[in-house]
Structure formats: structure tokens, C-alpha cells
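Take one record.
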Amino acid sequence: MSEKRMSSSKKHSLKSMMLQVAKELLDAEGIEKKEERKRYMEEHCPVLSYPSSKQELEELCKELHAKIEAVDEERYNLEHKAIMVVNEVKDLNIKIVDLKGKFKKPPLKKVRMSADAMLQALLGSKHKVSMDLRANLKQVKKEVKEEDKELRDVGDWRKNIEDKAGMGGRKKMFETEA
């Protein structure tokens, strides 16, 4: 396949088009966020109506104070719960540290123990399990090959070297191997 390269002017124009599209998308996203913020404020914050008389103003103040008291009470309850949880965590951490300090781990010593003794220690004296693995193995007699005997019975090494020296010796080596 022949891959054609773009000219630099075409690359530049493509890049500028991509940047322009990205800018338009960012602008649209910004406008959408402003509209969302405006909708949220209209839903959650009603338009403030100024009271025209002193009595209406007093009622508005009473309503606002009641809302403030409810929010303060809820905030106080949440703070109290958070403080209780933090204190409980601190107490549990202190208990953990105390328990760790009470039980010191002794330094363990290496003990040589057979497999039978280890199983007896783990399972108790009632269970008798034999771990003598060598008892079930077959005995094999070693066969001695004739080649091994020849290698062992070399005899005088000087004589062997003299026999194999020179062209005749090499010929003997090849004849004995074949």
C-alpha cells in the first residue's frame, strides 16, 4: 500500500479546524453550565419578597430564625456523632496497643524433629502415623557394565599414552570406539 503524506498546509488547516471545533464545544459547555446554575438557583432559592408592613417583616424574621435553629440543631447532632465516632476509634486503638503489649511473642528456637515426631506432636499421641518413606522403596541391585570395568582397569598410564601416540594411536582410538 502506498501511504501518501499530507502537505504541511493541509495539516495546518486541519489542526486549525480541530481547534475551532474544540473552542465551539467548550463555549457551548460553558453556556450550558450557566443555564444549569440559573435553573438550580430558581428551584432552590425562591424569589425574596420584601414585606410591605412591619407585621409581615416580623413573620419573615420568625420563619428565618426557625429555619436557622433547625439547621443549627442538625449541625450540632452531626458534630456530636462525629466526635463520638472519633473518640470510639481512639479508644479501640488504645485497646489494640494494650493487647499487643500484654502478649509478647517469645523468640522461637529451631528444633530438629523427625517427620514422625512432628506428626505425633500435631495429631497427638492417639494417632500413630508412620512417615518412614524409605520403608516402601524397592531395593535395586547395581549392575556393573563391562565398559565401566575397562575404564577402571586402565593399568599403567604411560603404556596407554604410548599406544595412542602418533597416527597409529588415533587409528586405535577410532577402532576401539566403533
